[in-house]
């Protein structure tokens, strides 16, 4: 019997919900689903230039687990580039580092700290949703 997967910590949520391919005459309806922990592995290793050991500590996983997550992410991104398939970032076994929210009015991502009012700090809208809810849809 296999062990239950632990949630992987996501420090910073993605600013986008996916990437759409353009330039094809007959756009494919197929989409590749990039899990949030796969996105985070690419962000930490390739964008932040962390070592695998550092990134594994940030995500609270073992280094071999991070390697597996990263390899899956690279394969998905490579397939998107080669075959011209859209990428959608959603789902997975993740836990946001803090209480992240998204404004439905201006699309800003932000934190709400304990004891503060629940409104967007950018546009003052109260139409906000938890990013856990946003990325699970």
Word description of this protein:
Helices cover 34% and strands 19% of the residues. With 137 residues, it is an alpha/beta fold. It folds into two domains: 1-13 and 31-97, Arc Repressor Mutant, subunit A (Orthogonal Bundle), CATH 1.10.10; 98-137, no CATH class. A three-stranded mixed beta sheet has the order 2-4-3. Strands 7-6-8 form a three-stranded antiparallel beta sheet. Helix 1 (36-47) crosses helix 3 (63-83) and helix 2 packs across helix 3. The longest helix has 21 residues, at 63-83. The relative contact order is 0.20.
Structural descriptors:
Arc Repressor Mutant, subunit A, 4 helices, flat, three-stranded antiparallel beta sheet, 34% helix, 2 domains, 137 residues, alpha/beta
Number of strands: 8
From the alpha carbons, calculate the radius of gyration and give it in angstroms: 17 Å
Q: Looking at the structure, what is the overall shape?
A: flat
Question: What is the SS-derived class?
Answer: alpha/beta
Q: Assign the CATH architecture of the largest domain.
A: Orthogonal Bundle
In percent, how helical is the residue content? 25-40%
Largest sheet: 3 strands, mixed
